[in-house]
Amino acid sequence: MTRATKISGFIFFFMMIGKPLFSQCVQNELSFRQGEKITYEIAYNWGFIWINAGEVYFKTDTTIINGKTYFYFDSFGKSYKFYDWFFKVKDRYQSVVDPVTFHPLWFKRNTYEGGFQVNNRYDFDFDKGRVISSVEHSDKPLTVDTLNLDSCIFDVLSAVYYARNIDFSKYKPGDKIPIDFIIDGEFYELYIRYLGKETIKNRDGKQYNCIKFSAMLVEGTLFKGGEDLYVWVSNDENKIPVFVEAKILIGSVKAYLTGYEGLKYKLNSLHD
């Protein structure tokens, strides 16, 4: 596998999700709304040392294109300045999605990680069953391809929000949920595995009832590949990621929920 097709993503910890279970790509009642913002702190482990390395946010807004209202998802992650000498990160992901079908309209990725830069753009046309993929890397010139697509396929950011609408009550621990999405101009079919329910304590001392799943990853510059990513989402109508843990090529990474605003529902998973 060439570096151009490998996954390298500071925000990618949140980007593993399930294949469509409905005629449309999502349930009618969504778990989020315009104005939501969720923030995380990223901690990196090397040996016995844990370092707070960076921060990530996810924002939900709306935008009007050709008279139609779409969801606009925006995520930005960066390393802290003191950590830049070791591995500087500055990642931006953006996606515009139809609120009814949950088909993405377009997606942009602009990432800088340890000196390696990636610029991706996908323009989706589900009526014609195609996506125009523009991919550029530090070690690869811009390539533009037209690819065929299925009725329900996601970019990595719209996938995060789709995952929050999976009805996990339909599954038992150990069940796999297939994945269809596009990364670096390539289609991937992986899976997540539902692992059950747990109560976890966040680093701020707050406890949450959570749904836990693992994710199958593609080998790349950050991950070893395999089922080495674990996600805990709130066991309520919001299904926000509360805690994420992943093994990487050197060490491991954890993401802790640090803040949220504009949630659509009360966070009933939070213990009083």
Structure description:
With 272 residues, this protein is mainly beta. The chain has one domain (3-261). The chain is 4% helix and 54% strand. The protein has a 14-stranded antiparallel β-sheet with strand order 8-7-6-5-4-3-2-1-14-13-12-11-10-9, with helices on one face. It starts with 36 loop residues before the first strand and ends in an 11-residue tail after the last strand.
Q: How much of the sequence is in beta strands? A: over 45%
Helix content: under 10%
Q: Which structural category fits the helices and strands?
A: mainly beta
Largest beta-sheet characterization: 14 strands, antiparallel
DSSP strand tally: 14
Using only C-alpha atoms, the radius of gyration works out to 18 Å
